[in-house]
Specification:
The protein is of the alpha+beta class and about 210 residues long. It has helices spanning about 25-30, 40-90, and strands at about 95, 105, 110-115, 125-135, 135-140, 145-150, 155-165, 170, 175, 185-190, 200-210. The longest helix has about 55 residues, at about 40-90.
């Protein structure tokens, strides 16, 4: 009698076990299951720290440049306001009146009376003295608070126009109880640059007087 052995499984020997193939094995066999090494972690941290450092330096540079531009803008605004103040003050100069006093112009300072606008919008006659105090050009206003016109000043010099024209005559002093010069030339030497030093730039302002008393 012949048995039909189709569909029958062969008998397993002793110690043998039935192993079912897993569908995930082919994928796991080709995958690198290692983690990050210590060197890779250190390199990543170093790159991150470098990026943060560069970003901080860039931000600090931008902030410093902004501060420098702001300081330069403020200095320019102050210089322009000082020139406007001087121009307006000399155009409102008053001399010859008994209550105004005379014009006292020296080489390194000058004093005169001028009409100044008050906080209430009125104009009052004030006595003004221009001179260098320390490293600043200061206008002392009486009565009133002093006005700092320029910083980093090493020296100042005043000249007074006696006669206009092609052959203008300038004098070093003008002291008169009843008259004022036609114009005043103000020369300012900055810190570290004396008035007579060669190669040093000196700021020169020409201040016109509206009427000659």
């Amino acid at each position: 009698m012949v048995r039909d052995i189709r569909g029958l499984k062969p008998r397993l020997g002793a110690g043998a076990f039935l192993r079912t193939p897993s569908r995930a094995e082919p994928a796991l066999q080709g995958r690198d299951r290692r983690g990050f090494t210590l060197i890779e972690v250190l390199v990543a941290l170093a790159i991150g720290a470098l990026v943060v450092l560069l970003a901080h330096q860039l931000f600090a540079t931008v902030v410093n440049r902004g501060r420098t531009l702001l300081a330069a803008r403020q200095s320019l605004d102050r210089t322009m306001n000082a020139r406007r103040w001087l121009a307006a003050t000399f155009l409102s100069l008053d001399v010859g009146m008994e209550s105004a006093g005379g014009f006292d112009g020296r080489v390194d300072r000058m004093a005169f009376a001028a009409w100044q606008r008050t906080a209430d919008g009125w104009f009052e006659r004030r006595r003004i003295t221009l001179a260098r105090e320390g490293d600043r050009l200061v206008a002392a206003v009486t009565p009133g608070a002093p006005v700092a016109l320029m910083d980093d000043v090493d020296d100042v010099a005043f000249d007074y126009l006696l006669e206009p024209g092609a052959e203008a005559r300038w004098v070093r002093e003008w002291v008169s109880p009843v008259s004022a010069p036609i114009a005043v030339r103000l020369r300012v030497a900055r810190t570290g640059c004396g008035m007579g030093d060669a190669g040093c730039g000196v700021d020169t302002l020409l201040l016109l007087i509206k009427e000659r008393g």
